[in-house]
Amino acid sequence: MAEHKEESVVESMMDKISDKLHSRGSSSSSSSSDSDGEGTAAAVKAKIYRLFGREKPVHSVLGGGKPADLFLWRNKKISVGVLAGATAIWLLFEVMDYHLLTLLCHCVILTLAILFLWSNASTFINKSPPNIPEARIPEDLAVNVARSLRFEINRGFATLREIGRGHDLKKFLIVIGGLWILSVLGSCCNFLTLFYIVFMVLYTVPVLYEKYEDKIDAFGEKAMIELKKYYAIFDEKCLSKIPKGPSKSKKH
Predict the structure, then answer these.
(1) Cα–Cα distance between 91 and 95 in angstroms, integer?
(2) Higher pLDDT, 190 or 38
(3) Is residue 157 domain-resident?
(4) Could you tell me the sign of the dihedral formed by the alpha carbons of 194, 195, 197, 202, in that order?
(5) 22 or 238: which carries more pLDDT confidence?
(6) What is the largest CA-CA distance in the chain?
(7) Which structural domain range is residue 152 located in?
(8) Over 193-238, what HEC string results?
(9) How confident is the model at residue 50 (pLDDT cuts 50, 70, 90)?
């Protein structure tokens, strides 16, 4: 009887040890499966194609802040107001054939006449004269705008110089194609209409892209694959046959 009791105690202890080992193994396997699942999800997320290699949200790409809120229609009242103002200006100059200098002069004449009459009539009607704020352009703002404009102009000149030296064929073709499209658009419409078209594109395309981001990125990925195929064919049949000058290493 004592031997049977000892055997039963040993068996029960062995069963408990095996149960603990199985529970640890299952927990470790579940944690490893969870980590594997998270890793695969992160890998899938990293493999998602974004148009032009974009890694940030659309709001950050547009610079963030109030300009990005304006283009993405975060505040619909302000966005509608800006759109209505731009459309009214385009209608004044293009449809009604109003001239910019004439419009500016008429606005200044009307504003000065109202303020002059109001200031002189305030003594007779016992009302306070208009409070005209002092308008000045801050020096820091003017310097920052000038520096930014200078940097962008110099970068454009440097890009044109690199293209002119024949270092980047792809960039050369892109710039030539863009300038040709601009020349065609310029022959079809004047500068103000072209500016209004660009404004409407900037005002509608980002918000539509943000709304249908996944569908547009999928279509863009397919389009880029096809473009790379056609570019490889064009490079093989035409560009590769163009004689190239000696490289820098051979010159030295």
Answers:
(1) 5
(2) 190
(3) yes
(4) positive
(5) 238
(6) 125
(7) 140-188
(8) HHHHHHHHHHHHHHHHHHHCHHHHHHHHHHHHHHHHHHHHHHHHHC
(9) low
Residue 172 three-state SS: helix
Cβ atoms of residues 72 and 213 within 8 Å: no
Is residue 158, in this structure, part of any structural domain at all? yes
Bigger pLDDT: 146 vs 229: 146
CA–CA gap between residue 68 and residue 210 (Å, rounded): 12
pTM of the model: 0.53
Please answer whether residues 51 and 212 qualify as being in contact, where contact means their C-beta atoms are separated by less than 8 angstroms: no
pLDDT at 53 > cutoff 80: no
169-221, pLDDT tens digit by residue? 778 888 888 889 888 877 887 888 888 888 888 888 888 888 888 788 788 77
**Phi and psi at residue 134, in whole multiples of 5°?**
-85, 120
d(CA 15, CA 13): 5
C-alpha distance from residue 41 to each of 36, 46, 48, 134, 221 (Å): 8, 9, 11, 58, 20
d(CA 168, CA 162): 7
The confidence score (pLDDT) of residue 197 equals 86
Total count of domains within the chain: 1
Nearest to 49 by CA among 205, 206, 219: 219
In a domain, 78, yes or no: no
| 161 within domain boundaries | yes
User: What is the torsion angle, in degrees rounded to the nearest 10, for the CA atoms of residue 9, residue 10, residue 14 and residue 16?
Assistant: 20
